[in-house]
Write a structure and sequence with these properties.
The chain has helices at 15-29, 52-56, 65-74, 91-99, 131-144, 171-192; strands spanning 2-7, 33-38, 77-83, 117-124, 148-149, 161-164. The protein has 194 residues and is of the alpha/beta class. Helix 1 crosses helix 6 (171-192).
Amino acid sequence: MRILGLSGSQRAEGSTAYAVRHALGAAAAEGAKTVYLTVAGRSIHPCRGCWSCGDTGTCVFQDDMTEIIDEMKMADGLIIGSPVYFGLVSSQLKTVMERCVVLRPSYEKPYAMTGKIGAGIACAGFRHGGQELTLQNISTFLMQLHMMAVSDGPGFSHSGAAIAGDARDDAVGLKMAENLARNMVALISARTGT
């Protein structure tokens, strides 16, 4: 079982990076192989809507998005983290999301991410700081790829993990991230028998 964690923050060592890595640590403790990627420091060209990928299966832009796409294809699960920017995902993460159209090549072909499990982590400056809508952005993205979204589940039951303030100091938010990762591992195990 392979789980990819993607930080959608330009801050390489900020709260989002910390929270995603924390979730991956919980998944690894359950036996999953984990991979961490970040948008920080990457050159990712915005999608121009040319739809060339629908015919060729590859994007016209050969940039740092290629590694992200390749890792997504190999993953059984995907944990996406984003800081809350104006109540939504970061612009860097939104660019990544739009470039993932290459994973939906045409209406006739199966999507590369079909049936995989995804989850979101949202980090804001304070509790109730836009995390829920940001998590909905991530869940919508997962559904657009024909993936299933998992939540952090009982005791909290949010649409994902909601981090408030500095992730290192948010015990509640980090517990949500752990629950989310464990739920993902359990669901992947149940579906694949691994």
